[in-house]
Amino acid sequence: MGKLVEIKHPLVKHKISLLRDKKTNTRDFRDLVKELSMLMAYEVTKDLPLKEVEIETPVAMAKTQVISGKSLALVPILRAGLGMVDGMLSLMPSAKVGHIGVYRDPETLKPVKYYYKMPDDIAERDVIVVDPMLATGGSASACITLLKEQNVQNVKFVCLIAAPEGIAELNRCHPDVDIFAGAVDEKLNDHAYIVPGLGDAGDRLFGTK
Ligand code: PRP
Ligand code: URA
After folding, report:
1. How many distinct structural domains can be found in the chain?
2. Which member of 76, 154, 171, 193 has the greatest number of CB atoms within 10 A?
3. In 3D, which of 29, 146, 160 has the Cα closest to residue 99?
């Protein structure tokens, strides 16, 4: 089973509280998502492998460490995942970025795919899928299935708020995928919105409602 990591860092908890507040405007919401993504990037890269290298400092030769292993790709789930890209990239600037467009049909709640564009070498990369919300888990699971169909071997999923139902669904569909969440909330409501959640992440990020 993939592990569930809830980030307990006080800065993450504080910023998620601000994000939840319905009085937080679009501009601040966007800034907070970016800052949170940076903090989450720090956590999700904690286990990256290192190799030893030798470099010359102005004082002496030094045996020191740099990141080794596979290159990374970041995959935001459109739309709301886009808000997490810049923050993540600021800590992993060499990562390539693939995009998956999926929206949740309001009637069936099933994910509907409308866009898919990956770097050519996606199968050779470790992939971090990002989306602020994991609600029923349908969107995240469908996106990860698409990536696996392209022979991607190693996927991590990063969200800001997760519902227990979404965690269970992602674990069921993709037991190999680790989930990193800024908060794990109580439940879904009758419209499959996360309670207490933050409302519609895409609308709040882009000011569409
Ligand atoms: C939101 C969110 C996730 C999805 C989560 O996107 O950003 O992608 O819902 O719900 P699920 O876990 O039940 O699938 P939405 O469908 O509202 O599209 P948008 O980002 O374009 O607004
Ligand atoms: N999508 C969102 O943006 N918010 C939720 O609470 C559930 C799905």
Report:
1. 1
2. 76
3. 146
CATH of the domain at 118: 3.40.50.2020
Q: Classify strands 178-184 and 126-130 as parallel, antiparallel or unpaired.
A: unpaired
Ligand 1 pocket test, candidate residues 82, 133, 157, 160, most atoms within 8 A of CB: 133
Q: Which residues form the domain of 152?
A: 4-206
In the reported structure, the alpha carbon of residue 94 is separated from the centroid of ligand 2 by a whole-number distance in angstroms of: 30
Task: Determine the Cα–Cα distance for residues 71 and 140; give it in Å rounded to an integer.
Answer: 22
Residues 6+ apart with CB under 8 A from 58: none
DSSP letter (8 states) at residue 195? E
Tell me the percentage of the chain whose pLDDT exceeds 70.
100
Span 75-120, pLDDT tens digits: 999 999 999 999 999 999 999 999 999 998 888 989 999 999 999 9
Cβ neighbours for 17, distance < 8 A, ≥ 6 positions apart:
none
